[in-house]
Amino acid sequence: MTIEERAALLDQATATGQAIPQLTSSEPMSLATAYAVQHAGIALRERRGEKLAGVKLGFTSKAKAEQMGVSDVIIGSLTDRMRIEDGGTFDVGRGVHPRIEPEVAFRLGPDGELVAVAPALEIIDSRYRDFRFSLADVVADNTSASAFVVGPWSKIDQVDALSVELLFDGEIVASGSTADILGDPLRALPAAQRMAAAYGHRLLGGSVLLAGAATAAVVLKAGAHVEARVAGLGSVSVRTKEG
């Protein structure tokens, strides 16, 4: 298949919520080709009127990287239509098998510097069957990006050892530390700069950088109130529905 054909398959899976076989199940795919597929998929979105809103990093947890057998982070793109307002609603029925993670978000300044920090939630949703994929598969699938929610922005201070809690309907379902994000979430900027330079992503002034997950992802179901609390930064939430 061509790069465009692979991107179209993933785009259709995203639109319909119907899982597809892993792209690498039929033919090998290099990391460079996988990023080309990712960019082709974002180009499809942009032609429909979506605008770039930022980038996200994946495999920033040492444990997750070791689980996947990788030694470096991966990068994906965020668009404006992926963003949900704090306290807003996400329709789980539009996804394949959506999951949610608590994160730290940064806002980029005009020169690509970090100017503000906020608690965040990222909804991930692999478009592959059984939520199984290789490194190339997940990169092509825009690092499983589905939606994101950003809480109140605040001035950047020490963010390297803050406790993080993920709550469903007021009950803690996962907990961790911002230290689980590259050892210090501030390391997300040089990591993003390096990956963007290598694979052609754009770090735009005013855009969002999702630094990575502080806990394992938790399966999303309809009718839940999901909240992330990051010590010193505050909280961010989203509600789920179906249909």
UniProtKB/TrEMBL annotation:
This is 2-keto-4-pentenoate hydratase. The lineage of its organism: Bacteria, Bacillati, Actinomycetota, Actinomycetes, Pseudonocardiales. It comes from the Bacteria. It holds the Pfam family FAA_hydrolase. Residues 101-237 form the Fumarylacetoacetase-like C-terminal domain. Coiled coil: none annotated. PANTHER family: 2-KETO-4-PENTENOATE HYDRATASE (PTHR30143:SF0), ACID HYDRATASE (PTHR30143). The keyword Lyase applies. InterPro entries: Fumarylacetoacetase-like_C (IPR011234), Fumarylacetoacetase_C_sf (IPR036663), Hydratase-Decarb/MhpD_sf (IPR050772). Keywords: Lyase.
